[in-house]
Amino acid sequence: MNKLLKRSVAAAAAAAMVLSFTGCKKSGDSGKLVIGGIGPITGEAAQYGIAVKNGMELAAEEINANGGINGMTIEIAFEDDQADPEKGMNAYNSLKDKGMKLLVGTVTSGSCAAVSELAAKDGMFLLTPSGSAVNCITAGDNCFRMCFTDPNQGAIAADYIADNLSAKKIGVIYQNDEDYSTGIFNGFKEEAAKKGLDIVAETTFTKDSATDFSQQVKQVANSGAELLFLPFYYTQAALVLQEAQKQGLDIPVFGGDGLDGLIGVLKDKVDVADGVYVMSPYASTSPEAKSAAFTKAYQDKFPNVEVNQFAADGYDCIYAVKKALENADVKDASISAKDLGDKLKAAMLEIEFDGVTGKTKWASDGEPQKAPKVLQIVVADGKGSYKVL
């Protein structure tokens, strides 16, 4: 072999060796950890996605200002899915291209169920702030949840009513074409039977009929119900409460976390919500120290924007991830998403997180173990606030 050929072979071998080592090297910036987020920031459900995004960004800003996590800074990359599962999957793939190493999302249940299938295949750690349908995190052991499931929330509501309130005859209005509402109601109905609560009125509505509740309220009034349970969102609940006042139905009202926002939507008509029970992990007017500090920080960063439980859940997700990363002693942001997922899913089972939405531990199925919070709306001088019970 001549000298020129020998040099060519040696150069080729050296180049191949360089390429080999380059291929094995972890990709990405070792000091910047990209956390993905997916949720609706346009469309009908935009208020929920925007709130989660804002909460995540506030937490990341605070963490970065205080030295980051084990020397790493956080970058939030958030994609709009318009609460559509197909768009959610497209957003997931787009975020992977942007270097996402873990996902806080998605915000809505339908999208979360679809995206979690992709995350499970990739070993990508997923923590949904607000996807409450049961199937949101069942795809793999790398999927976790910050909020309660819908049936769990319904069961907890039934337990609270049975153990703390005198009402035994319950009237229910729920949305029968909405997974969130039917999920809570089914959990409530099952637990109510165990607790000796009698559902004396069971009436429904659909998305298309959610403007006139006169017949539903009349049916509850005629049933002799001693309490009205509303497992749906505050926009429709505001209409129900106004119709109940119009018909003279004066019984206690109990709702799930979907009623958070009731004070804001009622505005000068907030008197109809006086005394309403709301089961929510966070309330903007709560006097609790963590809630109050978060509320102030959020309103300072996002003035003239209503702060709600979705923002608190997004905020808590980032701080829970911080604690898990510290527990796993992750210091290099260039770690692969799969390796990071393995470390985080183990760490999540070891930590106890004390956040704005309460103290939380996670079970092996990714479900949060936390005590429920029940708040009561109090109206004084035309203004509503929450009292923690």
Overview of the molecule:
This protein is of the alpha/beta class and 389 residues long. The chain folds into two domains: 32-148 and 290-369, 3-Layer(aba) Sandwich (Rossmann fold), CATH 3.40.50; 151-280, Rossmann fold, CATH 3.40.50. The chain has helices at residues 3-24, 46-65, 85-97, 109-122, 150-164, 179-195, 214-223, 234-247, 262-266, 289-301, 309-327, 337-348, and strands at 32-39, 73-80, 102-105, 125-128, 143-145, 169-175, 198-205, 227-230, 253-255, 277-279, 353-355, 358-362, 368-369, 374-380, 383-388. A seven-stranded mixed beta sheet has the order 7-6-8-9-10-14-15, sandwiched between helices. It has a five-stranded parallel beta sheet with strand order 2-1-3-4-5, sandwiched between helices. A three-stranded antiparallel beta sheet has the order 11-12-13, with helices on one face. Helix 2 (46-65) crosses helix 11 and helix 3 (85-97) packs across helix 4. The protein is globular, with a radius of gyration of 24 Å. It starts with a helix and ends with a strand.
Write the layout of secondary structure elements.
Elements: H1 3-24, E1 32-39, H2 46-65, E2 73-80, H3 85-97, E3 102-105, H4 109-122, E4 125-128, E5 143-145, H5 150-164, E6 169-175, H6 179-195, E7 198-205, H7 214-223, E8 227-230, H8 234-247, E9 253-255, H9 262-266, E10 277-279, H10 289-301, H11 309-327, H12 337-348, E11 353-355, E12 358-362, E13 368-369, E14 374-380, E15 383-388
